[in-house]
Amino acid sequence: MKGASDSTTFTAYTDSVSTASAAFGANNCGVPTYEIKMSDGTTAVPGYLTLSGTTLTATTTDPTHIGVHNIQLQVKLATYSITHTESFTVTITECVPSITVPTLTNQPYAIDQTSHPYTHAAFTDANACGYTFTYTAFLVGASETALPTNYVSYTAGTLTFAIYSSDIADVGAHTIKVYGTLDNTPTTANSGTFTITIANDCQHDAVSLTTAIGAQTYNIATPATSSTYQATFT
After folding, report:
1. What is the value of pTM for the model shown?
2. What is the DSSP letter of 6?
3. What's the fold here for domain 99-199?
4. How far is Cα 123 from Cα 205, in angstroms, rounded to an integer?
């Protein structure tokens, strides 16, 4: 057995009665009941081992429970005070997770666009140990730092980033790292990265006038005059 909880079901006990009386027939010993003890037949099994009907379940996240446990199954037929025993072992092993990181997709964004959401897929455990993940995200530079709130936020519960900016200072490529850490084994984690590229769609190298601006003269108290000019962005 491995993982936080695991179960196994054994075949139910059946009785066979041999008698000279055909009328007595078979299966008249009553309904069997099942109980598990440690191998000495009297010591109670630890609380993380339970028996329900014919299903034995081990439920534990405590590494001190790892090992081989010698168990005795007792089948009792109360009507005739008959007890049958079978011995077996329960081996509890450590489930070693193997974290798979999904593909994280690079995200383009232009200044002053509406907030752009990006939801990544959940990390998975290839060995299905039954643990849950906690997610965190950081900006990757010379070192890993908290996400800059001026252009990106992360909601771990929904695995969703929100990208937004109206500041030309945010233009550029920003590498984001996402960690998935197993709750039951906080030292076990894996990570993936993606890039947010913020562009300035209104960036131009030069501004020129299609109509030259000449000298303008205006005399006080005379009717207003105006001139119209057109600018070209390149």
Report:
1. 0.60
2. E
3. Immunoglobulin-like (2.60.40)
4. 44
